[in-house]
Design a protein that fits this description.
2 domains; 5 helices; mainly alpha
Length: about 120
């Protein structure tokens, strides 16, 4: 039984040795020589203006979370839509309730101003 796991252990050993070897070789072959130009944050080829640790508004994060919630909706809708006929009316009613709950949530967020960034 233990012989069946030997190839798997060998694979993990080779992967670990490769990862450790790359880290060690990077440190040996490429010593760190910091310069002000290298230490500057990369901003798509443009010189950064102001502090790179600027704070964002909470509304920015609220819009991002809302996007994730409504984006995850498609993860449930697409597989259901592919198998809708095979799943029958019970799944249709369940998905209809799911979409209604999300629509009410979106309407509530819109009325509360959660989608505005100003």
């Amino acid at each position: 039984m233990s012989g069946a796991y030997l190839p798997l252990l060998l694979l993990f050993g080779v992967a670990l040795a490769t990862a450790v070897g790359m880290v060690v070789l990077t440190q040996i072959l490429n010593p760190r020589r910091p310069t002000p130009q290298k230490e500057m944050p990369y901003e798509s080829g443009m010189i950064p203006l102001g502090d790179t640790r600027a704070r964002f508004s909470v509304k920015f994060y609220m819009v991002a979370i809302s996007f994730i919630v409504f984006d995850l909706e498609t993860i449930f809708l697409i597989p259901w839509a592919v198998q809708a006929r095979a799943l029958g009316w019970g799944a249709f009613l369940a998905m209809t309730m799911f979409v209604i709950v999300l629509a009410v949530g979106l309407l509530y967020e819109w009325k509360k101003g959660g989608l505005e960034w100003d």
